[in-house]
Amino acid sequence: MWEDPIVAEVHRTREKLAAECNYNVAAFFADVRKRQASLGNRLVRPRRPAEPTAEADRSRRSGSPGSTSSEAAPAA
Q: What DSSP state is assigned to residue 53?
């Protein structure tokens, strides 16, 4: 079976970090927070999600894209 080298590296790193913290989740995240604090402004802050627009609200209420009415079309 093929093994992705990037995924394998992620798994090895996860195992190494978990072992350093004696497989204690609280200790692991305390270490992560310490590492993040040491990086200061080098981390990218996540943006807040955009506010939905009125157009997005209309399309959400109308159902499927391209539909103009919720009623069935009369038979010809």
A: P
